Amino acid sequence: MNRSRILYHMVRADFLERVRRYSFLLTMGFAIYLGYAVYARQVTLRLDDYRGVDNSAWLGTVVGLIATVWVSLVGFYIVKNSIQRDRRTRVGQILAATPMNKSFYTLGKTFSNFAVLAVMVLILALAAVLIQILRGEETQIALGALLSPILLLGLPAVAVVAALAVLFESLPVLRGGVGNVFYFFFWTGLISISVTLVTGTQQPTGLHALQDFTGIAVVMGQMQTQLHALDSQVRSAASFGFGNFHATTKTFLWTGIHWTPALLFGRALWLAVAAALALLAAVFFDRFDPAGNGLRLGRKQKSVASNADVLDSQSSGVEPARASAFHLTPLLRDASNRQTRTRFFSLIVAEFRLLFRGHGWWWYAGAVGLFLGCLLSPVGAARSGVLVAAWIWPVLFWSQMGTREESFSTGSLIFSSPRAVPRQLLAMYAAGVLLAALTGGGLALRLLFAGDLSALAAWGAGVLFIPSMALVLGVTTGSRKPFEALYTAWWYVGPLHHIRQLDFMGTTAQSSTPVGYFAVAALLVLAAYMWRSVRRAYA
Amino acid sequence: MRLAIESVTKRYRKGVVALREFSLDLKPGVLGLLGPNGAGKTTLMSILATITRATEGRVLWNDTDIARDPDVLRSVLGYLPQDFGVYPNLNAVEFLEYLAAVKGLDGAAARRRIDELLDLVNLTDVRKRPLGGYSGGMRQRVGIAQALLNDPELLIVDEPTAGLDPEERVRFRNLLSDLSGERIVILSTHIVSDVEATATDIALIAQGTLVVHATPEELLRSVEGKVWEWVVPSTELTAVKQKFLISSTTRRSDGVHVRVLGEEPPTNAQPVSPNLEDAYLFCLSRHRAGARAGAAA
After folding, report:
1. What total number of domains does chain B contain?
2. Domain assignment of residue A496, yes or no
3. Is A358 in the B-facing interface, judged by CB distances under 8 Å?
């Protein structure tokens, strides 16, 4: 079998496995929602008071930007599971025993990721055609003008995301929650660099195109030039995003991006970046070797499997198989089952201890530092700054909530216990609340002594809300990623920028809305309980 | 102490029927649940362990319907699933302490019991090592320990000896025999020798239905006079396999010793004492023949 055929089958099998999962329907649902958001003008591209006439060029450009900006964020979390799936299903071990080349594998996974994301982009392209027909501002569909921005802006961007997902999965440090949180900031950085180019006068071409991941600088630059020719009074205020807070009042005819060879080269460079990232991933990919990383650094690697061999040799044959005589102390059984009710506290302690497993000393040092920062810095700074940091620090702890039973396959052990669903769920939530209260506890002490009850209420709302969000997302998805991605994004937009309604920590008096978050927390815990009850045949 | 399974049917999505009108009545002792792959053993275990509900029929634990009040059974249930996971960053003691808390056990009693159980499954030496470093057999032993945490009255073990070395396997068989006196133990497996060593009762299940429920002695009696041993040249082995139901073959210097099951002996075959594997194969082949005849009719 030649190499291209091997690659084809690797991509095909992975792609089919994904599209036959229910989660793929959610992915498609998200793409359809984005299309709807364009139709409902929830996603707006504007220049000053102008928007483009809804022709093929304009809608193609909007959809192309959605692909580069939004699909590049959400898509990463959607596809960052392909190597993990092979690891979990143990298919990886079978693959590792074949002559499979590491770079072939990471390239195959990148192609498969790309195929999934490309399907999303394709749905958006179809949506663009539909929107143009429904709006009817311009009835003639120009396929070239419609598809070129989608293909030339969107596809290179999602190719990079596809390769980044494989690279993150290949690097042990970025494979888990750290990678999920880190990507958000990485993505923010990529977008920010693109956006800073918008105000520039030069089109980012050649190697400078590597600063414009989204292609937004290309789009905005040409749009501004075209618009200035029509209206010299227009300012350079351009925006693209969700929300329609200030409706546009004027329209202009956008004829589409003028693709010069330099611009095309710039977009092609991103494809080359994607290929390079996929090959780089092969360097770190461990080929499912349980003994550790693919990149041999020469240092002693502490590994699970190598320990297993040692342990097995230690324990096997240590004693001859004893005769059947053994002694187990009988347990006193409480016929009324009061036993299980009164031992709820010990379950909270057990869940709390479980949250902390597998994290290094550096995490505790950071948490103590942030606690002391809350306690010792001026109250205003502690509330609006240190607390914000203190409550992003445990994100990888909260994200475990509700997912462990799925990810470690312990559900059958736990849910065959009496009243396991309500007891374990509430104990887990209580442990999450305790974690929030401890990490942000320095500020609570300050507010308590100062008698600032309204600020204390806002703090309390945060304490209850954060774990409730983690719990409901964990229980409903069985994955840590949704909480890690959504919480980080929300934390960035709301508390960090003190945006009212979104500031669940109440970082300032103006942005604080604790009553709403108390209510939402209660509803989320209830939703988590109901979901788990329904999912488990017995509750 | 009584577990009654009454006409239980389990239908999965897309119409797959894993269990069909399955009934069984159990009292203290070890029930060996035997059957080929896909027979419905694991589905039955899951229903009895209150992990999944029966589509039709009911399961009574001391006359209480477990679908209505699963906690009555759960508080006295020990369950070792076929596939289960552990938290890799916890050590054996911490993991068992966690499960003891989930099961609602008193802290001091749980700690004492965990010590005893780790000794019992021969993991005392490695009790402080993270479970992520355990081999498959060692994890299986942790699974056995957790199933015994709450001193269960009903112990359900699904393929418990999978991954155990021969020594640990013998140890576990002995353990099961000793446990059976005051509780109901259900041992699901396709390893006949495990059942042979421990079971006081055997239920044979195939295609989601109960083929036979009997004591090992009754099962052996059912194939008395139907097992034959016969020496054939190795060149004739293929032809013999097509003609007879073969239980086992052993190559020796005088040819291949073939163990054959059937009402009538092959020419020159000698009668031999049946074992449980013979009985298992015989019952299964009779059931399949019946099913084929039913389908043809």
Report:
1. 2
2. yes
3. yes
User: Quick check: helix, strand or coil at residue B215?
Assistant: coil
Domain boundary pick from B164, B192, B220: B220
Interchain contact, B85 vs A409, CB within 8 Å: yes
Q: Is residue A298 part of a domain?
A: no
Residue B201: CATH number of its domain: 3.40.50.300
**Partner residue opposite A308 with nearest CB, options B84, B90, B135:** B135
Q: Residue A310 domain-assigned?
A: no
Give me the pLDDT at residue A293, please: 52
Share of chain A above pLDDT 90, in %: 44
Least confident of A117-126, A227-236, B132-141, B248-257: A227-236
Q: pLDDT tens for residues B166-204? A: 888 888 888 888 877 779 999 998 788 888 888 999 999
Q: Which residues of chain B have pLDDT under 70?
A: none
| Facing B165 at nearest CB: one of A316, A341, A418 | A316
> Is A322 touching B (CB cutoff 8 A)?
yes
- Judged by a CB distance cut-off of 8 A, whether residue A325 touches chain B is yes
User: What are the φ/ψ torsions at residue A196 (nearest 5 degrees)?
Assistant: -65, -25
Give the closest residue to A403 by CA, choosing from A185, A177, A178. A177
Same domain? B281 vs B251: yes
Higher pLDDT, A246 or B208: B208
> Taking CA A97 as the corner, what is the angle to CA A94 and CA A101, rounded to the nearest 5 degrees?
105
Q: Is the same domain home to B17 and B71?
A: yes
Residues A352 and A450 in one domain: yes
Same domain membership, residue B230 and residue B161: no
Chain B residues 41-80 with CB within 8 Å of chain A: 46, 49-53, 67, 70-71, 74-77, 79
Average pLDDT over residues A125-129: 92
B181 Cβ contact partners less than 8 Å away, ≥ 6 residues apart? B28
**B195 in contact with A at a CB cutoff of 8 Å?**
no
Residue B260, SS3 per DSSP: strand
The answer to whether B59 touches B65, Cβ cutoff 8 Å, is yes
Stretch among A427-441, A479-493, B80-94, B167-181 having the lowest mean pLDDT: B167-181
Distance from CA of B269 to the nearest CA of A (A): 39
- Same structural domain, B32 and B167: yes
The model's pTM: 0.74
Chain B residue numbers touching A350 (CB-CB < 8 A): 97-98, 101-102
Q: Does B131 lie in the same domain as B229?
A: no
- Average of per-residue pLDDT across A419-435: 93
B237 and B216 together in one domain: no
For residue B283, the enclosing domain spans 221-296
Give yes or no: residues B118 and B226 share one domain. Answer: no
What pLDDT score was predicted for residue A206? 64
Distance between CA atoms of residues A343 and B262, nearest Å = 59
Q: Which residues of A touch B99 (CB under 8 A)?
A: 413-414, 417
Q: Is residue A96 part of a domain?
A: yes
Task: Give the C-alpha separation, A307 to A279, whole Å.
Answer: 31
Residues 427-486 of A with CB under 8 A from B: none
Q: What is the pLDDT of residue A80?
A: 93
What one-character DSSP code corresponds to residue B266?
Answer: P
| B22 lies within 8 A of chain A by CB | no
Q: Are A371 and A443 in contact (CB under 8 A)?
A: no
Q: Which residues of B touch A354 (CB under 8 A)?
A: 87, 90, 98
Backbone angles phi, psi at A260, to 5 degrees: -90, 160
Reported ipTM: 0.73
Decide if A82 contacts A166 (C-beta within 8 A).
yes
Contact A346 B132 (CB under 8 A): no
In contact, A442 and A382? CB cutoff 8 Å: yes
What pLDDT, on a 0 to 100 scale, did the predictor assign at position A310? Answer: 44
Interface of B with A in 243-272 (CB under 8 A): none
Task: Verify whether the Cβ–Cβ distance B75 to A350 is below 8 Å.
Answer: no
The residue from B194, B220, B246 where one domain ends is B220
**Whether residues A392 and A530 fall in one domain:** yes
Does residue B43 sit in the same domain as residue B165? yes
Q: Please name the amino acid found at residue B145.
A: A
CA-based nearest distance A430→chain B, Å: 14
Total domain count, chain A: 2
**Are both A127 and A208 inside the same structural domain?**
yes
CB contact under 8 A, A326 and B178: yes
% of chain A exceeding 70 in pLDDT: 86
Distance from CA of B18 to the nearest CA of A (A): 17
Domain with A256 in it:
3-284
